[in-house]
Amino acid sequence: MNHPATSTAPIFERSLREALRNAGFVSPRADQASVLVFDARSMGAHVADAATLLDLRERHRAARFRFRRDRDTYTLAHAAWRVALGACLDIDPREVPLTTTEEGQPRLAGTALSTSLSHSGDLIALTVCPAATVGVDIEQWPARIDLESLMPMFCTREEHAGLADLDASQRTRALLELWTRKEALLKAFGVGLLTDPSTTPAPSNHPLMPPANALHYPPCHTRNLRAGKDWVAALAAPSVVRDIRLCLLP
Prior knowledge:
Layout: H1 11-23, E1 32-39, H2 47-51, H3 56-63, H4 68-89, E2 98-100, E3 106-108, E4 114-120, E5 123-129, E6 135-140, H5 147-154, H6 157-164, H7 168-188, E7 220-224, E8 231-238, E9 243-248
């Protein structure tokens, strides 16, 4: 085990490692994705400690945020991501080989794991799994954006028609669930907004083939996670991932 001795590691790292153990967050099985959800505000006192875990690229990215709250959330999210990945790989968080593709998709070079990170306001979701790819998305609930006005931009015709049959309250929730499924799916395929969401369906009951610009990826399932009272989230992963281990930090 290469991570620092508990007595010399930053308080942020020590306390988070303990919180991960208490929450049951562990390296996933071959057919499993481990997902961690937490509120960055619970870690706000340890931003300076958390910043020591970031690499140079992440520090430069954090420094570009105009508002301190956004900068702190980014710092805490990425530091927690590194601690969680370090726990899965049994290495120091600073040695986690976390890189990104030109499109911004995370990579864990030299490992058999895939990972993804999402945040909405202060809410953070991260996932790791031993599959070819994975994507996660989290959004605050109630939604902070008018999803109904965006329906033509991110719904297929079939999705639009199905949602139109719901009453207003059901449609609002269903829209956000669809939004997160679609975001997670596009992340898993490594295309993000490079692909038109309105041409990419995101059903929860069968796998989807990747779009033409991501044919090197396997088909992926996308499904919503058990939601919290103030968030909705979704995961997308290849069919080999049959189980989702959801862990929440208090």
